[in-house]
Design brief:
Elements lengths: L3 E3 L2 E3 L4 H9 L4 H35 L4 H43 L1 H10 L8
Antiparallel strand pairs: 1-2
Helix pairs in contact: 2-4, 3-4
């Protein structure tokens, strides 16, 4: 008699499913490292860009005579007013990338260089906020 029922699927009691899952979850360490490096590289670029804009904004506020509290309030007002518009403008490119992830993962077996190139070269498109 099966010991586990998961959403109507009866799992074998002898551990065969565990072995199947373990085999399917095996990860090629060098490939995973390259994939994570691509993610970290992209994150670093985005962080540098964000820091640049933060520095420019703070400098502009200081030049305009705003103190730190006034600057923070301006940021909060801007966030409340612009977040929906920014989300609407930027969501589509990210959805496009998400839809390509299965293809990229499939390439990891056959064409790793192309998969990594796609990840490294992907940049969101659309108007600047």
């Amino acid at each position: 008699m099966p010991r586990t029922v998961l959403t109507g699927i009866r799992l074998p009691p002898d551990g065969r499913l565990r072995d199947i899952i373990r085999g399917a979850m095996e990860i090629d360490r060098p490939t995973l490292i390259k994939l994570l490096e691509a993610f970290v590289d992209t994150s670093e670029v985005l962080q540098r860009e964000l820091m640049l804009y933060q520095t420019l904004f703070a400098s502009a506020c200081k030049t305009s005579g705003l103190d730190e509290t006034q600057t923070q309030k301006a940021v909060e007002r801007g966030r409340e007013a612009m977040t929906p518009k920014i989300s609407a403008a930027s969501r589509e490119p990210y959805l496009a990338l998400l839809s390509k992830l299965p293809q990229i993962v499939d390439m990891l077996d056959s064409n790793q260089n192309e998969a990594f190139r796609l990840l490294k070269e992907w940049t969101p498109k659309g108007p600047l906020n």
